[in-house]
Amino acid sequence: MTISKNIQLELPLNAKYKVTYAIDYLDSNPTIKYFDEWYDMQDYVQDEIQRRIDFTVQHSQFTISEDEYKEIEEYENSLIKIEEL
């Protein structure tokens, strides 16, 4: 796979899944990870979602209600794109 200006990107040989996780909807440089196994990909996604939710809750100036927690969780889930290669 190539990108303009002759930058070469290499796809891992046995990768079966590509996970793209943005910080927000306007993120022009999201985190991209490749996984060989479904369970490794699923573990990464769950851990990363929980890490980001925990960060948001811990750094909030106010107490987070259950409804707000669910909204944060839905928002984080919306930022993930999983592709089967």
Written overview of the protein:
- The chain has 85 residues and is of the alpha+beta class.
- It has helices at 38-58, 66-78; strands at 2-3, 7-8, 17-21, 31-35, 80-84.
- It has 2 helices and 5 strands; from the N terminus they run ββββααβ.
- The strands form 2 sheets. The protein has a 3-stranded antiparallel β-sheet.
- A hairpin with a 3-residue loop joins strand 1 (2-3) and strand 2 (7-8).
- The protein is elongated and about 45 Å long.
- The model is unreliable at 1-8 (pLDDT under 50).
Write the layout of secondary structure elements.
Blueprint: E1 2-3, E2 7-8, E3 17-21, E4 31-35, H1 38-58, H2 66-78, E5 80-84
Low-confidence stretches: 1-8
Q: Terminal Cα separation, in Å? A: 13 Å
What is the strand content?
Answer: 15-25%
Most strands sheet? 3 strands, antiparallel
Shape: elongated
Secondary-structure-based class equals alpha+beta
Average the pLDDT over all residues and give the rounded result. 87
Q: How many structural domains are formed by the residues?
A: 1
**Strand runs, count:** 5
Task: Give the SSE order as H and E letters.
Answer: EEEEHHE
Question: Count of DSSP helices?
Answer: 2
Gyration radius over CA: 16 Å
Strand order of the largest sheet: 4-3-5
Question: Helicity, in percent?
Answer: 40-55%
